[in-house]
Structure formats: structure tokens, C-alpha cells
Amino acid sequence: MNAFNVSEHMQALGLQAKTAAFLMARADAASKNKALKALARRLREAGPALAVANQKDLERATAAGLPAPMVDRLKLTPKVIETVAQGCEQLAGMADVIGEIIGMKQQPSGIRVGQMRVPIGVFGMIYESRPNVTIEAASLAIKSGNAAILRGGSEAIDSNKALAVLVSEALAEAGLPVEAVQLVQTTDREAVGQLIAMPEFVDVIIPRGGKGLIERISRDARVPVIKHLDGNCHVYVDDTAEFEMALRIVDNAKTQKYSPCNAAEGLLVSASVAEDFLPEIAAIFAAKGVEMRCDPAAAAILRESEALGAVNPPAKIVDAVESDWYEEYLAAVISIRVVAGVDEAIAHINRYSSHHTDAIVTRDHVHAQRFLREVDSASVMVNASTRFADGFEFGLGAEIGISTDKFHARGPVGIEGLTSLKYVVLGQGEVRT
Amino acid sequence: MNAFNVSEHMQALGLQAKTAAFLMARADAASKNKALKALARRLREAGPALAVANQKDLERATAAGLPAPMVDRLKLTPKVIETVAQGCEQLAGMADVIGEIIGMKQQPSGIRVGQMRVPIGVFGMIYESRPNVTIEAASLAIKSGNAAILRGGSEAIDSNKALAVLVSEALAEAGLPVEAVQLVQTTDREAVGQLIAMPEFVDVIIPRGGKGLIERISRDARVPVIKHLDGNCHVYVDDTAEFEMALRIVDNAKTQKYSPCNAAEGLLVSASVAEDFLPEIAAIFAAKGVEMRCDPAAAAILRESEALGAVNPPAKIVDAVESDWYEEYLAAVISIRVVAGVDEAIAHINRYSSHHTDAIVTRDHVHAQRFLREVDSASVMVNASTRFADGFEFGLGAEIGISTDKFHARGPVGIEGLTSLKYVVLGQGEVRT
């Protein structure tokens, strides 16, 4: 009955993507922007058709007994569609970085040497549930002059197929190859294994999803992976921190939203201010129902704090265990530790953090500079909430993911992370002697 | 008898390197430069001691019947030592890029966001024969603030050990951790397998050697690899090329040296000039004994050429087979093909080249721009010899290798290729709303 051959399908997608990538690399900015604007328009026009496709996914998910929050994430509401349409228009309005040449300098031999930004080629994107990622990835592929092969979650297959049709139409309307963005047409998991093992067609894999998925892909991939593992982010409150600022930043970093990877999971407080600071932040956490997993020093301060005895609901103070320092809770839980000062804070972060985003609150210039330089994380902040670690907040204009790697792209990955720099040499007949 | 445990040795090197890397990342420019200058001085002073160690390697190599060119490459002559000593001094004179912050811009939220250049951490270097690479790698590690674990060729083990002692002494003299540069103390091949599979200690592997070594390492490594596969480089002579310039560049690219990876292995000539150009370049090649593997069109032109009939020694014209277009000869052999024009030249190169270095000789601005943009190679040149693809000629000040990858570093890799950019955020108490 099932005559569909996954391997043949993936090979065909790979070959078509490779061919399309060559044409996309040559495409001028006007054509790419035309495709992005056409995609925005078609998204808005296709509302009713998208709703029909999306309804199929939602019914299947509900019938399968998926939890309500997961069903919610599948929904292509008019608001979600408008947001991705606007995202396409914003990308269309951005300058095209492809072909830019940087650092052109004359060398002693007479040749001039610089670097030209070019697309990477073909990227494979593997993601879960939310169908709007299909449009985000497609629009980034178009703007960056790459080709993409998209493998969305099986729960969203009908929505993704409907969205992929709009992408193809928009590409065709702009005179660009429709194979520049292709959706894997099967939910067979074998397709993922194939996609990550085609170095002849695919230049880089970008997985978005749970830690298990990303570890599995990193282990098995035969091409480079832009990895985003976990976000165990910290805020360190230094001796000279302004209390009001520190309370605002720690509160925001932990409680503004619990689920993002850039939310804080650990609070470090300098011993010199711990007795004053901890009860104040704990009162805020208690009011919001945030559980506090404390080291002995922090626990002692909080359990003895009279102020905290009076809060309602009562503060949830729990003794931390070693594994707490590694944990990405993504929930109303935070680990708290008293440290001797900036040295111990840096040492704790470099040992336990996931190298995603860590912040210091301080007035001390030397401590700020040391923290910036010595904390080995993708984003390091002074006097700002970790929640800012995001491609849009960083001014990248778009974000395909956040890398916790040091290689190639680090931190929020925008268009530039989908490009490489090749050397260009301009001579007048020079030869090597 | 052999109580030496390779696995324990490698784990110890890894842990020590990781610790040293943290201190190296913090080291100031003055200390790093002091170590480099001390290393240069110690290299010059140690001449006699190095000669004794080197003699052991040479005697072992000769006894083992190694071919004379391979024995030559092992030699630590006074000239070789002076060259690497000068290399250390040049690095000491270069600006320190670690800690530099680029692109700091204010965002709508009020935060300022930029990127700081930091060391990658620990790199593992795997190389063959030439012991001077030990000093090149060590000095680049010191300047870039990384730690390095060096695995040299077994033939050079005594020389490498003697050199590694000088590096340790120079680090100690400058107050830097001696474990910042460590030499693997065994020639057991198991050590390589261990080194490439310690992601907890090693951030990147840089192999230098034959294609077989690099393919094996790329396949088995559990950390990123800065790969340099082969150099199948091309020169394309366009319709409007100035003949004198084209002859000079093609001759230089092929014959100035046969063994470097940036030597040309393929010549493409536009059909409109092939009848005039090919006999002239063939006369030069014939005089130098370069064998020409020709497609039917080129072969026909050359075999009918009266001019060529007269050269002495007689030109070696051979019919090319498909595999010739892929070949990195590293010898007095070149493949030659007549193409319809710039489009076919680009298509040939993108299909057969190893994406290392390719050049066009032309007066045509549009063809030059298309070649620069569309040829998918690490270095793309107009009117210059491919032999310029080199870290020193490109002004990088040093070179740890040449990458034929698109990911992270592409083309000649200098200090910057051993660094990563992390985001730094400077706030005044901003939080996310």
C-alpha cells in the first residue's frame, strides 16, 4: 500500500535543493524581496484555506489526547498568521548582506584581499509542533539566498503542507526556483536520519526542539549542526549592585515568562549583600509562587528572615542539591546561591551554566569588565535582563535559532549565521615570487 | 614493561589544557608577547641541543629507509629554526585581537549590543613530520589566548619533545601556565583517537596532513574539525584576457612550486582564444616538462600546433579522462579544457574543484564580478596567481591551516579562526516587557 520511498524522496529533495541553492546565491535583492512580500500577501489571503488545513491538525491532536498547551501551539490563529506575514515584510525591508565585501586591503605583493559574504548553500531545518516556524525558516532562507529543506513536526503536517504551497507560489511569482524551499512530505522519522546524513546536498542542520532531539541529531549528523542545547542562565548580584535595579532585573529574568531559554534559572548573590537582598527578592518570588532551591547560606538567611515570615502565600524554600545548579527548570523554580564575590560567581557560572546567557548587576567597572571577559557564555550582560538574549532584541532583524556552540555562530543566529565569508582577491597580473 | 596508559595520559592533558585555557583567556597582551619573544630567544640559544634531538629523528628515519625528501622535511636546520623564531617575534609584534568589541550598537530597548572576540578554548592539532609546525602551532596558541594539545608525527618525536620543553620554559618565564601548550608524549596512534573524542576538554581539532588522515579524523571526530582537504585549483583564461598576463599567471600558478595546495591543477580556456593561447602556454609547459591532460578540443589544437611541434623537449599531450578533472596532482601535470565561456568555466569549477582557490584572468568587469560571486570556493581571484592563497600573503600575519569548509573559518585560517565572537550587552537596568 505504502509505495512512498523515504530515501528516494530525500535524495530528490537534496538534489533539487542543491540546484536551487546555486540560483538563489545569484538572485538579486529585488527578486528575493518580491518573493517575501508576495508570501506576506498570500499568507493574509489564504486565511480560510489555512484554517481548514490547520483544523485537520488540531482535530488529530485532540483525538490523540495531546495536552491543551501543545494543541495551542499548533494553532494558526489570524494573529499568528499576521505576525509571520509582518515578519516577511520586515525581512523584505532589510538590507541584503549577500555579496557585501568587507576588509578589502592592499597587501605588500600588490594584490587586494577582502572577504565576500555568500550564502552557506542548503540548510536543513528540523523543528517541532509550531507551524509558523515553517514561514520563519522559509523567509530567512529566501532573504539569505540559501535553499532550505524543512522537516516540521508530524502533528503540524497538514498546516505545514498548506504553508509550503504558499511559499512555492511566492517564489514562482518572483521568478525564483520553487525548490529553494521544500517541505519534507512524509512524517516518517527515517526522513530525519536521511536529512542529517547527506553532506553532498546539505551544508548545515538547524534543529529546534527539546534537548533530546538536539543531542540525538548532533550525535548522528554527518554535517555541521547549529546547536541550541539548554538555557541554564544566571543573574549575579554583585556587592555594589543597586538594589532596585537588581530586584527588577532578577524578577524580570525569572518571572516575565518561565518557558523561554533565556529566562534565568539561577541567582547568585554576593555574601556582602545577601542578608539584605535575599529577603527582598524572596518576597517577590513568594508572591509569584516561585520555588527557591537554596544553598545552605541562602536557606539560612531566608529561613531566619522575619520579613519573609510575613509574606502570603508563604515562601517555598527548598534545600538545593548538586543537580539543581545544572538544571534548566523552565518553570516557577530558581536556584539560589551565596558566593564570596565576583570570582566565585564567574567560577560557578563557567562550571554549571549552559553557556547561553549570564548577567551581572553591578556598579563596579572592574567587576563588570571581568564578568564580560571571563564568563564563557554566548551572551554576557551587565545590568540587563537575560530575557534580552534574542535575535530581534539584539537587532539581527530575524532569528533562526540561538547557538550555544562556540563554532561558527554563537548566540542568537540571524541572517549572517546562514552565510559564510569567502576570500576575494583583486590583482593586476601579480604572481608569487 | 609498557606501563604507559594512553587514555590516562590524554585525559590528563585534556584536563590540564582546559584549566590552562581559562588562564590564557584572561592573560594580558604583554604576557603573551613576552612568552613569544622568550620562545624566539630560547630557540636561537638551543641550537646545539635541538640538533642533538633532531639527529636522533634523522638517524631513525634513515635507518627505517624513509625516502630522502621525507628525511629532509624532518631537518631542523639553523635556517628553519631562525624562520620559526622570527615567526614568534612577528606574532609578538602584532596587535592582540582578544577582547576587541565590534559592532556595539544601541537597540530600541536601550541596551547596547556588540560582539567580543574571545579564544575558542582548547584546540588539538594533529600533524605530520615537519617539527617546525610544533612552534608555529604553539606560538599561535599563545598569541590567540588558547590552550593547545599537539600531536606531531612519530618520526619527529624527539625533535618535538625538545621544542616543547622550550615552549614550556617560555610560558613559565612570562608567568603563563606551562600547560597552555602540551605535546602528546607518545607515538601510540590510539592517542589521536582519544584526542578527537574529548568534547569535554577539546573545542576544535585542526589536522594537517594527507587527505586520508583528514578524512579519517573528520569522520571519527566528536568535536568540530577545521578541515583542509585537497587543493584542486583552477585558472580560467577568459575571452578578453591579456595574453602576457595570462601566460604569467598560469605559468606561476602551475610551475612556481608543484607541491603546495594552492598550485593550479586545472587550466580552462575560453574557446574564443584557445587556438592562440594554448600553443603559447603549452610551449612554456613543455620547456618545464609539465604533462598536459587535455580534453578533445584542447588536444586537437595542441596536436595541430606547428609552434609546438618545434619545442624541445617535445610537449607531453595526453588525453584527459573524467577523473583528471577531480585530480590534485601536486606534480608537473595539469588538466586543460576548452570551455564556451565564463558560464561553462564557472560550472566546471563548481562541479570539479575542491573549493580551495580558483582564478579568472580577464579584462571584462562583468565576467570578473560574476566569477567572484558565483564560484563557490574559499578564495576567488581576478588577475592573480592562485599561489597567493596563503595566510601571510592575505595579511593574516600567521596561518594555522587553510579551510576548505564553509563553516566557521573558510580559506587561510589565522588568529581569528581560533577565536569566537560572544555577544556583550551593556544595560542600565533594562528589563524585557
UniProtKB/TrEMBL annotation, chains A, B:
<keyword id="KW-0028">Amino-acid biosynthesis</keyword>
<feature type="domain" description="Aldehyde dehydrogenase">
    <location>
        <begin position="16"/>
        <end position="286"/>
    </location>
</feature>
<dbReference type="InterPro" id="IPR000965">
    <property type="entry name" value="GPR_dom"/>
</dbReference>
<keyword id="KW-0560">Oxidoreductase</keyword>
<dbReference type="GO" id="GO:0055129">
    <property type="term" value="P:L-proline biosynthetic process"/>
</dbReference>
<comment type="function">
    <text>Catalyzes the NADPH-dependent reduction of L-glutamate 5-phosphate into L-glutamate 5-semialdehyde and phosphate. The product spontaneously undergoes cyclization to form 1-pyrroline-5-carboxylate.</text>
</comment>
<comment type="similarity">
    <text>Belongs to the gamma-glutamyl phosphate reductase family.</text>
</comment>
<dbReference type="InterPro" id="IPR015590">
    <property type="entry name" value="Aldehyde_DH_dom"/>
</dbReference>
<dbReference type="InterPro" id="IPR016161">
    <property type="entry name" value="Ald_DH/histidinol_DH"/>
</dbReference>
<feature type="domain" description="Aldehyde dehydrogenase">
    <location>
        <begin position="325"/>
        <end position="395"/>
    </location>
</feature>
<dbReference type="InterPro" id="IPR016162">
    <property type="entry name" value="Ald_DH_N"/>
</dbReference>
<dbReference type="GO" id="GO:0050661">
    <property type="term" value="F:NADP binding"/>
</dbReference>
<protein>
    <recommendedName>
        <fullName>Gamma-glutamyl phosphate reductase</fullName>
        <ecNumber>1.2.1.41</ecNumber>
    </recommendedName>
</protein>
<keyword id="KW-0521">NADP</keyword>
<dbReference type="InterPro" id="IPR016163">
    <property type="entry name" value="Ald_DH_C"/>
</dbReference>
<dbReference type="InterPro" id="IPR020593">
    <property type="entry name" value="G-glutamylP_reductase_CS"/>
</dbReference>
<comment type="pathway">
    <text>Amino-acid biosynthesis; L-proline biosynthesis; L-glutamate 5-semialdehyde from L-glutamate: step 2/2.</text>
</comment>
<dbReference type="GO" id="GO:0005737">
    <property type="term" value="C:cytoplasm"/>
</dbReference>
<dbReference type="Pfam" id="PF00171">
    <property type="entry name" value="Aldedh"/>
</dbReference>
<dbReference type="GO" id="GO:0004350">
    <property type="term" value="F:glutamate-5-semialdehyde dehydrogenase activity"/>
</dbReference>
<keyword id="KW-0963">Cytoplasm</keyword>
<dbReference type="InterPro" id="IPR012134">
    <property type="entry name" value="Glu-5-SA_DH"/>
</dbReference>
<keyword id="KW-0641">Proline biosynthesis</keyword>
